[in-house]
Amino acid sequence: MDSLSLSGLRISDNHEDLPERSLLVLYGSETGTAQDAAERIGREALRYHFRTRVVAMDEYSIHTLVDETLVVFVCATTGNGVEPRNMTALWRALLRSDLPEDLFDHMYFAVFGLGDSGYDRFCWAGKKLHRRLLALGGKEIVERADADDQHYMGIDGTLDPWINQLFSALGELYPLPPGLHVLPPAAVCPPRASFLPTSANLDAELPHLTPSGTTPFRVERIDRITRADWFQDVRHVELSCSDDILYEPGDVAVLYPSNAPEDVEAFLKRMKWRSISDKMYQIQSIDSDRPLPSSIPRITTLRKLFSDHLDISAVPRRSFFEFLFKFAKDEHEKEKLEEFCSPEGQEDLYDYCNRPRRTILEVILEFRSVDIPLDYVVDVFPLIRPRQFSIASSIKANPKKIQLCIAVVRYRSKLKAPRKGLCTSWLTRLNAGDTISVGIEKGTMRLPGDSSVPVILVGPGTGVAPMRAFIQDRIHRGARANLLYFGCRSLEADCHYKDDWDAHIEKGELTCRIAASRDQVRITASKVYVQDLIREDSKTIWEWIVHKGAHFYISGSASKMPTAVRLAVEFVLRKEGGWSEDEAGMYVKNMETAGRWAEECWT
Ligand SMILES: Cc1cc2nc3c(=O)[nH]c(=O)nc-3n(C[C@H](O)[C@H](O)[C@H](O)COP(=O)(O)OP(=O)(O)OC[C@H]3O[C@@H](n4cnc5c(N)ncnc54)[C@H](O)[C@@H]3O)c2cc1C
Ligand SMILES: Cc1cc2nc3c(=O)[nH]c(=O)nc-3n(C[C@H](O)[C@H](O)[C@H](O)COP(=O)(O)O)c2cc1C
């Protein structure tokens, strides 16, 4: 019995006889989570016999939106309240002031917003989009969801109940014609791709395989900058380019990591694909309503596909288990997987997968009866996400070069093998002389054009990366009013770029305050962080911000640090200016609006 018949019914993609049941799912996604949610909604809609298109917002022709009658918008928020880049064009078009108020009065819509409540502007993009669609006459079919990464089940914690609400509302609006029934969850929708063996030559395809918008860079060095016996491995990375490159301080480098070769080998062996792993395949898109992601190469080998494009090291999402359930053959495994996909099984799934940070490869090695047809791999496995790193150098001080400051992610969970970050582990495998593809994007922080304006830079840990770029750029422009707050645990072990700071201080180019939390604890029995130094320096901070018009920047961990720093500045304003809590809070908000306060923080 093949896996399709085992899994029960197969969903047909022929909906020509039900023209009114046409659903468009548009997603705005920066790192793939919203895309995954959109695809899940799309698969669910197929069970309800909707003709379903799932399209990235920037791959959809905006002027046809007025013709749509049923649209689900799925959108994440990024960069401190900003919409994902693939949503920007659509969002700008919707903001046009000449749009009539009844533009969408024939459109039913729903918004599923994704975000992280650790950020001040939680689900901002989804909220703004929702408000705008209502203002343009759209009719909401189900209440907007604001899904939170911090939910213990992640986004799925909100998506599961929301999908139920959505399809129950749709059931009322679009009742199924007599004789047609909703298909059971085990039904398998058709794949988006077909894999055809080909005799094409991979070398001829190589130029098309580099990610679009990237430039080749040579790896010059990847040096460890934390003490050899220190628990955290932080690297100074230098990349060079033979062409002239342009970037601004505050810009971000985008790296495209690969899975570890030994993991790819173990995966191919488990899937029984070793004998075909180096054969060339043509990957054809077979469903124009659910196009293949543009980053999937159209001709490649399975080894390259699972090395460079499809992720086997991420912690799998719920949608992955839904596919495993459909393709499992062993009854016990099927039962377990069915439980993981049920509302009652969510605690168990969390304990099995999210809590210990089990990877896709580890899961697939455990559920050995799962047999995934080749044509489905693009549906089942997520894309490898590119990773962003703040550039730690100024092009003026380092022509044709990019420097980065990268903390290698490695930690333990209850599983025996240590957990390793995909991109940072890949970086540690690179050697001087290797060539990698690098993209450059605008970050959220920009220096003031006028060099005489002072800057206060708060960048603990690797958050110091963009601050180093700022300092190099400003010193090159002759600016001396640079005040850096750096935080680390120990001056001896993890004080990144201490020699740089000492040299700048010596020349009167920089004022630097370092909070070395573990060193301090030995002296005063309490830890000192950057926010404590800001409070201590209240007179200077007040003088620089209020009297000299300083710009203020924060970068690093998005956990508690940015809020703690903001509160410290508000404390200073209250203490030195005698202002109320509201006045201090409003002053910082106004700084933000005026472009004098910016944050670049990551989880
Ligand atoms: C705009 C921007 C700029 C950035 N700049 C920098 C920079 O300058 N330097 C830098 O080092 N990083 C920077 N980052 C973060 C960087 O992009 C990566 O997220 C980070 O390096 C991890 O990538 P990875 O692929 O190695 O880890 P992944 O495979 O993506 O794993 C990371 C995940 O592992 C989990 N995790 C990590 N540590 C633990 C732990 N101790 N316990 C439990 N779970 C854990 C978390 O869920 C985390 O999200 C930046 C991010 C953004 C968005
Ligand atoms: C650099 C960065 C900035 C973010 N900024 C916000 C934010 O301002 N507000 C928010 O609610 N979520 C924010 N998030 C969280 C994302 O919206 C959330 O992780 C979401 O699931 C990502 O979806 P995506 O993978 O489709 O981009 C941010 C995430 C990152 C990595």
- Uncertain runs: 1-10
CATH class placement of the largest domain: Alpha Beta
What hetero molecules are bound to the protein chains? flavin-adenine dinucleotide, flavin mononucleotide
Write down the Rg. 26 Å
Helix proportion of residues, in percent?
Answer: 25-40%
* Alpha plus pi helix count: 21
Q: What is the straight-line distance between the termini?
A: 45 Å
* Oligomer class: single chain
Remind me, CATH topology of the largest domain?
Rossmann fold
Q: Name the overall outline.
A: globular
Main sheet: strands, sense, barrel = 6 strands, parallel
What structural class should be given to the helix and strand makeup? alpha/beta
Number of structural units classed as domains: 4
Proportion of strand residues: 15-25%
Question: What order do the helices and strands come in, and which of them pair?
Answer:
Blueprint: H1 3-6, E1 22-28, H2 33-47, E2 51-56, E3 70-76, H3 88-95, E4 108-115, H4 124-135, E5 139-140, E6 145-148, H5 156-173, E7 193-197, H6 202-205, E8 215-224, E9 234-240, E10 252-255, H7 261-270, E11 280-285, E12 299-301, H8 302-309, H9 318-327, H10 331-340, H11 346-354, H12 360-366, H13 377-380, E13 387-390, E14 401-407, E15 410-411, E16 419-420, H14 422-429, E17 435-441, E18 455-458, H15 464-476, E19 482-488, H16 498-506, E20 511-516, H17 517-524, H18 530-536, H19 538-547, E21 551-557, H20 561-577, H21 581-593, E22 597-602
Parallel strand pairs: 1-2, 1-3, 3-4, 4-5, 4-6, 18-19, 18-21, 19-20, 21-22
Antiparallel strand pairs: 7-11, 8-9, 8-17, 9-14, 10-13, 10-17, 11-12, 15-16
Helix pairs in contact: 2-5, 7-8, 9-10, 18-20, 19-20, 20-21
